[in-house]
């Protein structure tokens, strides 16, 4: 039996990683947080691969999703506190709509090969 020739591992394309991150983010977001672990997995993936994406168009998409996550989390926390005085639900709904809008806008920009703005 002969030994197979060792091959170097093929790096995963940054476009694929960005698509996967958008998909995981969408699953967590559109499940209204029930599958929130998917969104957290997307953010962890983005932070792990952030250095590889530096200087590419994908770095802007990584930043776009990270900003959407952190600003959305902050807005949900503030809205959650405001539900105690019965006005927070408006903020929760508005934050959800805003996050879905940013998700769609960013994903479409990726498909068109441009930076989300």
UniProtKB/TrEMBL annotation:
Keywords: Membrane, Transmembrane, Transmembrane helix. This is Transmembrane protein. The chain crosses the membrane at residues 20-48, 69-87. It comes from Zwartia hollandica. The keyword Transmembrane helix applies.
